[in-house]
Amino acid sequence: MESPARELVHALKYQGWEGVGRFMGEEMARRAVAPIREAAFVVPVPTSSRNVRRRGYNQAQVIAAALAEALEIPLLPCLERRRQVGTQTTLNPAQRRANVSGAFVLAGPSRDAVEGQRLALVDDVYTTGATVLAAVQALAPGRPASVFAYAFARTIPISMGPRPDEDLDLPIR
């Protein structure tokens, strides 16, 4: 059975339902904790230009824009994606890290904007942390004070999932 979060992410990424991303960002704003609410900028994780051409939008930027608007925090799309080799969905954690290593770069004029600032880095799904790590490494030359990752959904690796006899009660963050 599909989870509602998975269905929303798939509608946004694969079915062209851009409005779902706005809903996701608004819900994230409603549930945002202090470090996100106190961020100086909301930074979307960039996707590949191929995905933008196919979808017509960057799903993380749609979510981030709605979050930024709801929290009245400026949106700062300061990261650029240098490259992407295929999809992450079928890769194991080590392959995911290798796939996104060096994939992002901080856009030149944004260096001064992020220096000393608290940033909310926004993506649609958090799986292994490989994308977040690569994005934080790309932001590092700008010397932000802190970077807080915030995603609409997260996946739970099978090895970390509940045993069949356990109930799973996770808060949505």
Summary of the model, kept short:
The chain is of the alpha/beta class and 173 residues long.
Description:
The chain has helices at 4-14, 18-31, 34-37, 49-55, 59-71, 93-100, 110-114, 130-139; strands at residues 41-44, 79-81, 104-106, 118-126, 146-154. With 173 residues, it is of the alpha/beta class. Strand 4, helix 8 and strand 5 (146-154) form a beta-alpha-beta unit. Helix 1 crosses helix 2 (18-31) and helix 2 crosses helix 5 (59-71). The longest helix is centred in the N-terminal third of the chain and has 14 residues, at 18-31. The chain is globular.
Indicate the topology.
Blueprint: H1 4-14, H2 18-31, H3 34-37, E1 41-44, H4 49-55, H5 59-71, E2 79-81, H6 93-100, E3 104-106, H7 110-114, E4 118-126, H8 130-139, E5 146-154
Average pLDDT across residues?
A: 84
Residue stretches low in confidence (pLDDT < 50, at least 5 long) are: 160-173
Structural class by SSE content: alpha/beta
According to DSSP, the number of beta strands is 5
CATH class bucket: Alpha Beta
Radius of gyration: 16 Å
State the helix count: 8
Query: In the CATH classification, which architecture applies?
Result: 3-Layer(aba) Sandwich
Distance between the termini: 21 Å
The main sheet comes to: 3 strands, parallel
Which strands sit side by side, in order, in the main sheet? Answer: 1-4-5
Secondary-structure element sequence? HHHEHHEHEHEHE
Helix content: 40-55%
> What is the overall shape?
globular
Remind me, CATH topology?
A: Rossmann fold
Beta-sheet strand percentage?
15-25%
What's the number of domains? 1
